[in-house]
Amino acid sequence: MSAALQAWDSRTPRERVLLAVMAAAIVAVVGFYGVIQPLRLGAEDARERATIARQQADALAVASRQAAPRAADTRPVGAIVEASAASLGAPIARKRQEADGAFTIWITAADARALLTWIAGLERQSGLSVVGVTTSRLDNGLVEAEVTFGRTAA
Known about the structure:
Elements: H1 2-9, H2 13-66, H3 77-85, E1 92-97, E2 103-110, H4 112-126, E3 128-137, E4 143-151
Antiparallel strand pairs: 1-2, 2-4, 3-4
Helix pairs in contact: 2-4
């Protein structure tokens, strides 16, 4: 510590001011890019995720209120889902028939509202239920999704 004080005392007043300004600039840059910027980006991301979740909930609520369910479709779950998928406008990238009769599809790029409206409509019109949904947001405003459909329990 004494060596640092001695080095500081050996500087001219002008050098001390320049060193103080340089230290303040370093603290400001590190503070902005190391603290403020990550916090701001995290808040924006959280706001965007909350907006998407709200839109998804609204779309499901609207779709579930639109009409009473029809009689259950007796075709296999996979056939019902594949026949209806064309109306979504996003092709099914992969599909898998589960052992319990459920049917899982993967969609690589779809509008979140259109996807949720399609899922709700498929549930309402064919008597299927959604066993699980996993979505991930893509950079261009679309989502990729894994959706598992099963028969509605009677």
